[in-house]
């Protein structure tokens, strides 16, 4: 969790050292489940290396909700905070190195950090950035055609297209792999006319 803020909030280095002992560093293969849908989230996950996705099961089909990469952290937030079953599964897509910090220490750390000048303001900024991102994704899913969403992905988050297998991108866009292939083919033809 601290990685989110270390570069812009150097006061955190001492906290990082203090809480390092409570974090479990794991080197894990692709397709490793870090949290299963329906289970209660008790860990905050930070990605040092690799790619992770959040997904849910829809009548036997995996629906990808979000991708996470290096220097990003995640958990099933509602499950983590309210001790309720997670709506999502969290799974690695690449061989990854992650840190897990149990909830007990996350809460203790947040309590300590809340006394650091400027930290709560920073936390609110980060939280609002994430909220705006998710709202934009939700609106785009309703408003935009799959082709538009794919073009937006290429423009704004090309690393996803470069690193994530196509069937997961199709799932993320809400289309079949065949439909995604058609979108890519159409875009390639459009480029060749210029």
From TrEMBL:
A Pfam family recorded for this sequence: cNMP_binding
InterPro entries, alphabetized: cNMP-bd_dom, cNMP-bd_dom_sf, RmlC-like_jellyroll
Domain (Cyclic nucleotide-binding) ranges: 27-111
Signal peptide from the UniProt entry: none
Name of the featured protein: CRP-like cAMP-binding protein
